[in-house]
Amino acid sequence: MRNPLGGCLKVTEAGMTRRCWISIVVLCIFLGSIATEGMAAVEREKLLTDPGVYATFAIFKMEEDWWKLDKAVRASTSESVKAVFAKHSDRVITDTYLVRGISEKADFMVRLHATDLIHNQNFLLDLMSSPLGKYLRNLQTYKGITKKPTYAALFPEDLKAALKAPAEPGSKPYAIVIPVRKDAAWWNTEVEGRIQMLREHAEASVPYLRTVKRKLYHTTGLDNLDFITYFETAHLEDFNNLVLALQRVKEYRYTVHTGNPILVGTIRPLEDILEVLAR
Amino acid sequence: MRNPLGGCLKVTEAGMTRRCWISIVVLCIFLGSIATEGMAAVEREKLLTDPGVYATFAIFKMEEDWWKLDKAVRASTSESVKAVFAKHSDRVITDTYLVRGISEKADFMVRLHATDLIHNQNFLLDLMSSPLGKYLRNLQTYKGITKKPTYAALFPEDLKAALKAPAEPGSKPYAIVIPVRKDAAWWNTEVEGRIQMLREHAEASVPYLRTVKRKLYHTTGLDNLDFITYFETAHLEDFNNLVLALQRVKEYRYTVHTGNPILVGTIRPLEDILEVLAR
Amino acid sequence: MRNPLGGCLKVTEAGMTRRCWISIVVLCIFLGSIATEGMAAVEREKLLTDPGVYATFAIFKMEEDWWKLDKAVRASTSESVKAVFAKHSDRVITDTYLVRGISEKADFMVRLHATDLIHNQNFLLDLMSSPLGKYLRNLQTYKGITKKPTYAALFPEDLKAALKAPAEPGSKPYAIVIPVRKDAAWWNTEVEGRIQMLREHAEASVPYLRTVKRKLYHTTGLDNLDFITYFETAHLEDFNNLVLALQRVKEYRYTVHTGNPILVGTIRPLEDILEVLAR
Amino acid sequence: MRNPLGGCLKVTEAGMTRRCWISIVVLCIFLGSIATEGMAAVEREKLLTDPGVYATFAIFKMEEDWWKLDKAVRASTSESVKAVFAKHSDRVITDTYLVRGISEKADFMVRLHATDLIHNQNFLLDLMSSPLGKYLRNLQTYKGITKKPTYAALFPEDLKAALKAPAEPGSKPYAIVIPVRKDAAWWNTEVEGRIQMLREHAEASVPYLRTVKRKLYHTTGLDNLDFITYFETAHLEDFNNLVLALQRVKEYRYTVHTGNPILVGTIRPLEDILEVLAR
Amino acid sequence: MRNPLGGCLKVTEAGMTRRCWISIVVLCIFLGSIATEGMAAVEREKLLTDPGVYATFAIFKMEEDWWKLDKAVRASTSESVKAVFAKHSDRVITDTYLVRGISEKADFMVRLHATDLIHNQNFLLDLMSSPLGKYLRNLQTYKGITKKPTYAALFPEDLKAALKAPAEPGSKPYAIVIPVRKDAAWWNTEVEGRIQMLREHAEASVPYLRTVKRKLYHTTGLDNLDFITYFETAHLEDFNNLVLALQRVKEYRYTVHTGNPILVGTIRPLEDILEVLAR
């Protein structure tokens, strides 16, 4: 599948006046949206559900100088950011989160999914080299792989059925990222013991499946973590109760706590995030 | 309930000269104070006592460049800060604390209460985008939910009565924030054991209820914490003795210590904090 | 007791030219020294020995830009620093320490004693808003309360007598601050056990009482500490042997070690510290 | 063996105009590539397989100001970087890695091998003094020594044979650096116990030898580590499974976890890295 | 003994033009070298072997702005640095180490020995106030005291004799600093147990005495350490094997590991270090 934007974006790599850059970008996005629209939904669904997909959670904060720039200058950088998203849209699917005002650590987060990690790297290289990107501090870049469930196949049938309950419809504005590392005692526990503990963990989560969506990424060796757990919800108190329930099962004793890694944000379109950054 | 300031503040979002901005802001605050005065006290009391309320403790330090700005320039930013407080006043109640000169970590703290966390986020987005806000470093943003007491209902009647003793009247100039995380052994203790330990904890606090006011927020999953404990007092030595008493009960063994999170400040009106920042 | 400097210093809060500021300051210091001289020695002795006094250890480092300022500009800020010390001298007693060149963490430290913590806060607000203060990084602000000895009353008579041995006369140029936190096991030990361990601790210190002066501050709940221990000596090797002796008693097992908090400096008058900062 | 570039590069140490510098550098590289080409492959293979070789992993991030420089200015610094690599090429072999966009910690990494550590130091002194180098933040510099396998000689014959299985041909675009420290209990275990645990460790790695290349460096005393483990692979999921397998053997219990040291990057020629830095 | 440089250097404390400063400095160095030459070797030997000497390890990194200064400006600061060394040379003996390019933490280290710690402080105050010093970041300043060996007197005669074996002649270009803290269990072990463990420690070091020189400093109470261990060697692999051997004895179990404190550098004259900083 060829990127229909490729041609015009190659040109933009040479130095151009800002006006020229913006014109081309707008055109590219227009053309791109025609070409990729049909493909996107299917691809997106597949990358979000398939095993063997590489996800990158890139967490950014603007440098302090950014906010002292003239509002017009800041706003003028938006189009080139959108162009980066468009340029890579046939290889990398993206989700954007506004963290500013909720977690002090960051201003926003981009979640990337691709069939190869290098696609995510190439996306981020372009993002960080764009006019806005030059003001980005890349605070954290978690990397994970999606896998077929390892243990769930061994759970009792009723638990398996309960875990398949669909989430309630409606938007889920809040997203939470909790990186997890298990200690050596966990990994040195024989597999039956781990399955038993994960079964208790899964059972504790059942009451919250309707209001809290979850997705798991495996990171051992790619980061100083074992898992990235990702949540979406409209009900933060349910989420709070879910995590409390998970802390009350035995498996929680094997979790390593380091630093201050939990990140909470609101799911917002790129357009909105760029508007906040230009305020 | 519609924000009576909404109309005029929408206009201010576009670029204006500073003089124009200030004029409108002053007018808005004047109008706003008329419109929201009656509502405020009731709403405030309700948000400070209801369960299911979302609190945000946003802790800020000015960038070093701020203090090198001309005093007049710094003073001129005050009105737009007040405008942010006014704009959100029908959704978010606020308390302000001067930390500068007491805890090295920060210059000031804002405590926000709202029925939804996103209201607090929107407040902070505006605050941090105001002319003064561009010089803010957001050092910490703790998030918590208020809940009905979980265990207190199971305490003996005399302890329940003692815990309801009213605080002595008079202003309490000092506020202290102590974030708390309990370890896995705590959460894995069966509920009876936890109730018993919390009863000892509550009994130890009784002698200090008159002079030290307390409020509890639940944060599990929203921050790398389980609770934010918040205190107000006029008698720091009583507070010191209270914390000592709480360290001598068994429940303290399950508290995790990480970093340097205690924050002490004096409760001061926004006006005073802005004056200090403009000195 | 009214501050005789109050009147003229109020005026200085408005914007003035530097020349004007300095003239008034010099006058104030002159007048102030006449008015407060007699009172100072008594007050100072009282605040340094009474229980219920609030001490603040404010530790500062100059920003890197400071050292690039012209020497004359830096020297010109000294008078306004002295004015801050003079303005608050009837409420806050001060000691100054040059840390630069001994501990990498800081350039200097100010120790404040007052009957209320807010007096120390007000002093530091003024110090940090002075022309020199705008270049200060406030690295640490430990807060403590003095109390009557809790356990010493229960020590044997001969130990009590030994602990009252006066320090040898003569100046003690070195000061050391060691913040201390005891673990949950310590606070959960029944009081007899703690007294017994503190008795061993006190006995180990007896041989060094003549050459190492000590003072204890209680900080539980005000900082993430339980005590600030403060030492003065002319003989650092004695001090080294004292701390070694204290590490060999059982009580040391209950001390929590976090970070790198020990601070060593030389006791020097404010005048000298300002001279070093203007070099 | 004399560096054929030595003569012309000595001249460049004096101040010259940029144009002059670049001309000479280009010439040097041209001459250098003729002179060192034949030697390089043999030397490189030897330094990468011999024991007693000193490796340095130098990890860099560009300062924030770098990205605000004009693209042409940034691009103009490339030649002098290449000149540093050429100047030292007869003493130091180099590998370059693009980390930007994968691990937030760094922009790129250089791995150096030489027969003496001071050659690596001299390379890095020149690199960091080049026009681009003045914008480098040297985040980490791991140092290690290659040694003959200590324990492998004592493994059973079939394991020894399995460990000699060649890696599959083809490029391995990803490189991962995992620093390792073993705890005191490990080093205090008698040698037989350690051999037995390392045998389990080696057996767990056998299924991944074809797709994941490994190299071991000894660092005890040179860094706060005991080993640097270095991996290359085209299959990150295999790598993830390898590390999981290694976490399930007993030896993993003796690994100390501190900070966030894992580094992932893509192996890219210096030319490509310089292009990314000039974007 | 009076400092023959005292007279002319006093003058330099007032503001002077750079040309004037340099002239006087050059003169002072010239005069100083005549006056102190004969004394230096004896004094140096004495301070490096006597007990009761205060050593300061001051570790520095240049600010990022330094490297952007014109090469000529940087080079012009060298003389005033040499003047600081000369001014204090009759009270403080100095050794200089180039760390840049080996350990990421620092650019260089100065080791000072004097009979009183305040002499080291005064040296560093002058160094950091020199034109080059204004660009120094003082990353670490370890302080230690030399003492007569405490336990060695109790070792068996053959071990005592072995420990007196002279190091092989020839230059030792590498220096390593390893700060050490022992835990409470160590200090609470009765003295016989500690002697026995230190004997094993000493025995493990015997094979490396010829190629690795060692010196020990006591720091308890002066830094959050108990010892600074200092090594010089021409054979880093021997040093690596020495540290491995020391990790295999029981005493190593009582060592506390915090942070990343090991520092490796090459011993180089001040002249060379200043040349690197001016590149």
Give the number of helices of chain A. 10
- Going by helix content, strand content and strand pairing, the class of chain A is alpha+beta
Overall pLDDT metric of chain A: 88
Text of the CATH class of the largest domain in chain A: Alpha Beta
What kind of assembly state do the chains in view correspond to?
homopentamer
Number of self-contained structural domains of chain A: 3
Radius of gyration of chain A: 20 Å
Number of strands of chain A: 9
Low-confidence residue ranges of chain A: 1-17, 19-39
Largest two-chain interface: A-B, 38 and 43 residues
CATH architecture of the largest domain in chain A: 2-Layer Sandwich
Distance N to C terminus of chain A: 38 Å
Helical proportion of chain A, percent range: 40-55%
CATH topology value of the largest domain in chain A: Alpha-Beta Plaits
Largest sheet of chain A: 9 strands, antiparallel
Tell me the fraction of residues in β-strands of chain A, as a range.
15-25%
Order of helices and strands of chain A: HHEHHEEHEHEHHEEHEEH
Shape of chain A: elongated
Structure write-up:
The structure is a homopentamer of 279-residue chains. With 279 residues, chain A is an alpha+beta fold. In chain A, strands 1, 2, 3, 4, 5, 6, 7, 8 and 9 form a nine-stranded antiparallel β-sheet that branches. In chain A, strand 6 (212-218) and strand 7 form a beta hairpin. In chain A, 40% of the residues are buried. The first copy, chain A, is 41% helix and 22% strand. The first copy, chain A, has three domains: 9-47; 54-143 and 267-277, Alpha-Beta Plaits (2-Layer Sandwich); 152-265, 2-Layer Sandwich (Alpha-Beta Plaits). Chain A has ten helices and nine strands. The A-B interface holds A 64, 67-68, 71-72, 98, 100-104, 173-174, 176, 178, 236-237, 239-240, 242-244, 247-250, 252-253, 255, 257, 259-262, 264, 266, 276, 279 and B 15, 52, 54, 56, 58-59, 63, 65, 117-118, 120-125, 128-129, 133-134, 137-141, 143, 145, 147, 181, 184-185, 187-188, 218-224, 256, 258-259.
